[in-house]
């Protein structure tokens, strides 16, 4: 049996399984961070689907009613446009409902949508607290803080990502910018501002949910109607974040994806670990 | 050497009962300089067997979680949505309504906890008034009911049933004005100029029976979309009814209420969603237990505090 009291340099030679060399791993994500990370998928999906059903009842973006159809909802116009221009949608039965039928619980479902939205909203707040607790307990909150050098580094990363496909096509070398932190500057900005957006979504949500008791909160966002607009556009932050997030995690490889399930990574070289030379 | 124990953090994890102890090797790290500076990730040497065991455990755990979430989604989503997704089977379990109502109850409790008789809703100036549409749920009633209109009060401490006409109300109570926002459950809102008597004054003049906690506010003139009688009934807790900004409104924009805004008397309770603001009230009954509520029976909240 091996014990950690043995000299570090001899750890391998005293293993009970000498034919299997041990693997150096780093702890990347606290288990509370991992669980709350994955729970965000169903919770945000529920919030967005029910949220667009709530939006249907009184759309933010309206125009004067169309003299022929009486329609005033911009989202219905987009549905009509999709059915007219997207192949395979020409025979869609109810073009004005296209958006609501594809991106929400459905039109005319305000009561079930509200109930589901409250359920998911309270879950989202709880989950957010679990996430923050995991960041604090794991100590990884420090990796998310913005730095002074981030703006330049973010531009370098953006240049790398945008140039990557062309460099691949041209079979040119395209070196990854060097950094010795857990995340690169773009990742750090994303992982910092998405929780901020989560906080703002909750704050604007309360502002429009309790506009009388919490009228100071609504006033903070420019009043009740403006808070509704904030709440709507904050939804797009998650949608716009998720697309590159998922593409890049698959591009980065199995180790990165696995680390959000198991917590550890074998990419030791990416953390500035200094092995003690005795 | 500054082994701070960080590298050993894996050792505390539940080790497999297979008799294989994790191979842990501490790696010392540079001393961090500031409180906000990023720390190196704790590194350790693990035997592949332990890593495999832990990975299997974690993937099975997360897989079980994913299945539970899928089952939960099938359990909670409305039937219309599921059939749109191609789920033909009826997924309505007996506990579904109960569970979703529970979430609604928690939210109502939060709204009730936020209520304070001393907290006023914002008021506005006349220049901030916005148009208010006629939002009668069904058909706007024929104004023929107005001349013979009477307000009936039941559940009073006196045990009597009292009938008042609009002249009685306007002469025996002082009229208060307010410009407040009416917020609809659908999301739209309107700032309007109201005047009327305080519900609180009515409660003082005709006190309800001592144990009463609720008022059932009814309108018998309400019609459904095809013009058939569809009496409207709303519950309101007496705490909110006693709020100084809760009016029994008689005037809108400086004029007596028109039929589309609930002539001759409507409830104006800015602390609740618009659907609680009953138009053309014909009866108020004070009760002990929470009474029935038109929109709560249709899946909306009961308390509707905002």
Compact overview of the structure:
The complex is a heterodimer of chains A (278) and B (306). Chain A is an all-alpha fold and 278 residues long. Chain A is built from 9 helices and 2 strands.
How would you write the strand order of the largest sheet of chain B? 3-2-11-6-7
Structural class of chain B: alpha+beta
Report the sheet-strand fraction of chain B.
Answer: 15-25%
Number of helices of chain A: 9
User: What pair of chains forms the biggest interface?
Assistant: A-B, 71 and 74 residues
E-strand count of chain B: 11
Terminus-to-terminus distance of chain B:
60 Å
- CATH class bucket of the largest domain in chain B: Alpha Beta
Shape of chain B: elongated
Give, in order, the helices and strands of chain A.
EHHHHHHHHHE
For the largest beta-sheet of chain B, the strand count, sense and barrel status come to: 5 strands, mixed
Query: Segments of chain A where pLDDT lies below 50 for 5+ residues?
Result: 1-15, 271-278
The outline of chain A comes out as globular
Radius of gyration of chain B using CA atoms only: 30 Å
In which range does the helix fraction of chain B lie? 10-25%
Number of strands of chain A: 2
N- to C-terminal separation of chain A?
23 Å
* Number of helices, where a helix is a run of at least 4 consecutive DSSP H or I residues of chain B: 6
The CATH H-level superfamily of the largest domain in chain B is: Oxidoreductase, molybdopterin-binding domain
């Amino acid at each position: 049996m091996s014990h950690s009291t043995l000299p570090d340099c001899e750890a391998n030679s005293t293993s009970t399984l000498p034919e299997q060399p041990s693997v150096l791993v780093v702890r990347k994500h606290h288990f509370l961070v991992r669980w709350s990370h994955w729970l965000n998928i169903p919770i945000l999906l529920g919030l967005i689907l029910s949220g667009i059903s709530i939006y249907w009842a009184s759309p933010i973006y309206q125009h004067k009613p169309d003299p022929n159809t009486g329609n005033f909802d911009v989202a219905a116009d987009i549905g009509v446009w999709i059915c007219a221009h997207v192949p395979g949608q020409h025979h869609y039965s109810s073009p004005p409902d296209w958006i609501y039928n594809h991106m929400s619980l459905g039109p005319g479902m305000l009561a079930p949508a509200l109930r589901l939205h409250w359920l998911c909203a309270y879950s989202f707040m709880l989950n957010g607290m679990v996430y923050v607790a995991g960041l604090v307990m794991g100590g990884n909150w420090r990796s998310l803080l913005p730095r002074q050098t981030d703006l330049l580094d973010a531009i370098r990363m953006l240049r790398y990502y945008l140039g990557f496909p062309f460099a691949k096509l041209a079979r040119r070398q395209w070196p990854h910018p060097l950094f010795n932190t857990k995340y690169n500057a773009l990742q750090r900005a994303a992982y910092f501002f998405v929780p901020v957006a989560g906080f703002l979504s909750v704050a604007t949500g309360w502002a429009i949910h309790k506009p009388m008791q919490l009228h100071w909160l609504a006033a903070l966002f420019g009043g009740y109607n403006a808070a509704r607009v904030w709440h709507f556009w904050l939804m797009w932050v998650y949608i716009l974040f998720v697309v590159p997030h998922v593409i890049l995690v698959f591009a980065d490889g199995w180790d990165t994806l696995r680390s959000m399930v198991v917590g550890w990574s074998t990419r030791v070289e990416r953390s500035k670990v200094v092995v003690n030379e005795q | 050497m500054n082994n701070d124990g960080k590298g050993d953090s894996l050792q505390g994890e539940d080790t497999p009962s297979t008799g294989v102890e994790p191979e842990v090797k501490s790696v010392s790290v540079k001393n961090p300089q500031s409180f906000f500076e990023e720390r190196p990730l704790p590194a350790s040497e693990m035997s592949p067997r332990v890593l495999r065991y832990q990975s299997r455990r974690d993937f099975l755990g997360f897989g079980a979680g994913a299945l539970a979430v899928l089952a939960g989604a099938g359990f909670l989503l409305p039937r219309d949505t599921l059939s749109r997704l191609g789920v033909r089977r009826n997924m309505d379990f007996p506990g579904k309504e109960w569970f979703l109502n529970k979430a609604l109850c928690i939210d109502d409790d939060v709204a009730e906890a936020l209520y304070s008789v001393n907290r006023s809703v914002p008021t506005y100036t006349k220049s901030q008034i916005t148009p208010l549409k006629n939002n009668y749920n069904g058909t706007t009633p024929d104004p023929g009911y107005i001349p013979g209109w009477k307000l009936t009060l039941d559940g009073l401490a006196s045990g009597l049933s009292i009938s008042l006409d609009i002249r009685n109300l306007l002469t025996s109570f002082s009229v208060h004005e307010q410009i407040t926002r009416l917020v609809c459950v659908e999301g739209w809102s309107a700032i309007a100029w109201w005047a009327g008597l305080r519900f609180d004054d009515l409660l003082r003049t005709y006190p309800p029976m001592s144990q009463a906690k609720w008022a059932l506010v009814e309108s018998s003139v309400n019609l459904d979309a095809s013009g058939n009688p569809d009496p409207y009934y709303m519950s309101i807790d007496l705490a909110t009814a006693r709020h100084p900004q809760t009016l029994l409104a008689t005037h809108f924009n400086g004029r007596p209420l028109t039929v589309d805004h609930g002539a001759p008397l409507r409830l104006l309770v800015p602390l609740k969603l618009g659907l609680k603001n009953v138009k053309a009230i014909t009866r108020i009954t004070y009760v002990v237990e929470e009474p029935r509520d038109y929109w709560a029976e249709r899946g909306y909240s009961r308390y509707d505090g905002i």
